[in-house]
Amino acid sequence: MRADLHIHTTASDGCWTPERVIEGVQAAGIGLFAVTDHDTTANVYATKALARAAGIAFLRGVEVST
Length: 66
Prior knowledge:
By secondary structure, the protein is α/β, with parallel strands linked by helices. Helix content is 33%, strand content 24%. The chain has a 3-stranded parallel sheet, with helices on one face. Helix 1 (18-28) packs across helix 2 (44-54). The chain is globular, with a radius of gyration of 11 Å.
């Protein structure tokens, strides 16, 4: 199984919306991924719902500045 545990969305410094993340993950054949935006979980729950609907394993995360 392919995995990517470090994806950022438009909630921080990424350029993909949650919908686009799902499209990209599917296109890359990734079976498990995590959204780990900087200092926010703003897009985590939307992405989780989309991942569930698409049948893709998802982990919640956040990259915390210290």
